[in-house]
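User: I need a structural model of Translation machinery-associated protein 22 from Schizopora paradoxa for a docking pre-check later this week. Nothing fancy, just the predicted structure tokens so I can convert them on my end. Input:
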Amino acid sequence: MSSENASNAQTSAKEDDNQPQSSGSATEVEKEAVAAAPISVLFCDVCSFPVEYCEFGTSLTRCKEALQKSNPELFNKYYSEETLQSRMGTLSLEKQAKLEKDIAKAEKKAEKKADAAEKKKKESIVTIKRIERTKRKHVTAIHGLEAFDIQLKPVAKYFAQRFATGASVTKNAQGQDEIVVQGDVADDILEMIEEGKVKLLKGVPSDNVELVEDKKKKAAEEEE
Ligand SMILES: [Zn+2]
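Assistant: Understood. Predicted structure tokens for Translation machinery-associated protein 22:
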């Protein structure tokens, strides 16, 4: 009895197994499901990621080899020379965009800085001070030229030659650089700046230049 029962069970089990295979409609459904699935997700045999994410795993070389064998079409899609090049192109485009952004930023900053410098220049004053040392002796002190990007030493040298006198760059009482020229050349220097013909003094607007008479020093200097 028991062996009969067993054989019956086996038979019925075999019949159950055979049922889906013999049914044509079920096979069609399965085929459709199988055909639709790989397009959306195909998992890598090596790293088990979806194949397009193999690069994020640690076995890309083996993944690529496996995919090249199992699915050359997909392999070409992801790893062909062309694909890699177009990806590189995207990367450099991104870099370019960032670079352009950086440049624009730097330009804006420079512009701002230039504006600030321009504003500062407009507010800067050059003073040409006629200082009376004694009844007959004067010196002329020019202060503030550096705000207009004027190199003081060459200008001092130029004044010395031009006026055949002594001229030097020294620090004033406030610790600021100024050009001191021996003799009363204040009017000449003012004229020079107004005319704008002296290359070394170019860029100094005459509106920003003021002539100052310093007679207070006279008493102090005479006491020395
Ligand atoms: Zn992989």
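Before docking, keep this in mind: Residues 103 and 109 are 10 Å apart (CA to CA).
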